[in-house]
Write a structure and sequence with these properties.
1 helix; four-stranded antiparallel beta sheet; mainly beta; eight-stranded antiparallel beta sheet
Amino acid sequence: MERLRKFADFLEILIISFFVMLMISTYIFRIFTVNGDSMRDTLKSGDKVIAWNICNNLKQGDIVVIRADKSVTLNDDNSLEIKDGINETIVKRIIATGGQTIDIDFGSGAVYVNDKRIFEDYLKLGLTHKDEGAFDYPIKVPQGYVFVMGDYRSLSEDSRSAEIGFIPTENIIGKVIFRISPLNKIGKIG
C-alpha cells in the first residue's frame, strides 16, 4: 500500500510538472530554430534560441521572432496596404518602432532613425546597400508596427521588401533572449 501511495505522489508531481512546463512554454517563452542566414553573424541557420513571449516593451535593436503572414506597405496615398505575406516564421532585428521615421542611404549604407544615424556594430557582413523596393525613404512607421532588418543586409529579406513590409506588433511571437544551441555559442542575445 505504501508503494502505491508513493507511486501516486510521484505521478501527481510528474503531471503537475508537465502542465507547469506546458504553461511556461506556451505563455512565457518558446524555443525556436533559426532558419536561414539573414541574421549572420549574430545568429546562424540551425541555432536554437529562447524567445520571451511577453513583448510589451519592444525597442530598437531587439531581435524578434515574427509570424510573417502579412505584408504591410503603403499605397500611393500613404494608406496601409495589407496583403498576404510569406507565411513563414522569421527572426529579424527591430530598426524602428511605431511613430519613428526611418531613412536609408543605400549609397553609403547608413540607416537613420528620426534623422540620427544609428550605430550598428552588429553588422559584420556589410552595411545596408540593397534596396528591396517596398518603400520610398524616408518613411514613418505607423503606430502598432515595427520596421525590421536582418543583420546580413545583402542576404536578408525584411521590411525593405514588399513581401514583408512593416510588421504588425501582434505578429511578433517573442523577443530573442538566449541562444541554447550550438553548445559552444550558448549565451545571452541582445
